[in-house]
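One record is set out below.
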Amino acid sequence: MNNALFQEEIEIDTSPVLRERKARLSRLVEAISNLSQNDDWNTLKELLLDGQVENLEKQLLGEAKNYELNSPKIYRLQGNLEWAKRYDFYKLAEAYKSEINAINKKLNSLSEA
């Protein structure tokens, strides 16, 4: 039996979901921008977070160079490194902005079709 006869092309309008995601990301970028200008956040970042990424990368590299690998420690360091990278607000905002641009392109292509 030829299943090609039964296949129908179903188009789902994803634009409401994309618009909702875009609005949420825009609010996140705005909040990140406001937070990054806050003096208290800058103090916390300077005292607690600055240098953490570099420190964790050095520790991870040191563990990777050992003759016998300690997998739990490597996984812990990798998780901590990912956590530390999230608090670079400039990079985080840029990632969200690029996602907003991709959503805009998709919405434009949907409206043109």
User: Anything to note?
Assistant: The two ends are 34 Å apart (CA to CA).
